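Slide 14.
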Amino acid sequence: MTPLTHLPAGGDLPEVVTIGVSVSVPDPYGTEIQDARAGHGDPLARSIPTHVTLLPPTEVPAEELPKIEEHLAAVAAAHRPFRMLLRGSGTFRPVSPVVYVRVEEGAQECRLLEADVRSGPLARELAFPYHPHVTVAHGLSDDVLDQAYEQARGFHAAFPVPDFGLSRFDADEVWRPWRSYSFG
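Slide 15: predicted structure.
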């Protein structure tokens, strides 16, 4: 577990913090996907590091963070490193205007992690069933989403996954890595 970073001025936390938990996509792949996302005109491209979500944005009382950190450390200790293969494109249209890169290998590990992360102090209902993916375009016109889908079809990346991270949504509306949790 790494220490807190990117604290607000003075080191004080707001009463409620918006957090997310995810598997980071390492460089050069993460930057390649982020550049593609920016190239499609996605306004969120530079404010969200490339990742596979394990816990979507969730508001929590700051006083609950120590309990949440203990929970995440226990989840990480109960899982092992795995290999992730990202390949090809997918979409959630027409339900949601999202184009993504598919998690071809490591999806089952992500499902198990997601279920464990989203338990205990982080138990919550989801708006949609969990589907591990890496977003390439979101909320853009159909023409742009079609183009993003075609361009992502040839994407391929394989890498080890040694950990997952806790991120925080800051007042400047940028997601920043906060702590990481290595697998046991």
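Speaker note: The beta strands are 16-24, 51-61, 82-91, 98-105, 133-138, 156-161, 163-169, 175-182.
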